[in-house]
Amino acid sequence: xETLSFEFPAGQPPRGRALVGCVGSGDLEVLIEPGPAGTLxxxxxxxxxxxGQRWRHLFARMFDGTVPPAMNIEIHDFGATPGVVRLRLxxxxxxxGHD
Length: 99
Fold this sequence. Notes:
The chain has helices at residues 52-63, 82-96, and strands spanning 2-9, 18-21, 28-34, 39-46, 71-77. It is an alpha+beta fold. It has one domain. The protein has a five-stranded mixed beta sheet, covered by helices on one side. Helix 1 links the parallel strand 4 (39-46) and strand 5 (71-77).
């Protein structure tokens, strides 16, 4: 198990919270909560050691050219593919009302 932390610039916090997915074979759980203005913090607990660069690239692509809301995102990964990660994050953003 490895725990990774990432921070990105952000705008104002959203009003809502979201919990999407579940930890299981090839899936992951994402918890999204409002965070302090100006900061998007992401914590990833993953079963795949040495995957920090893959996660960093995924987040950089998702937030490139946008100003996401200030959130604390907690991800519990069980070896999910990048496509599943993005899907779960987008589901969470939709639930809190962020496109």
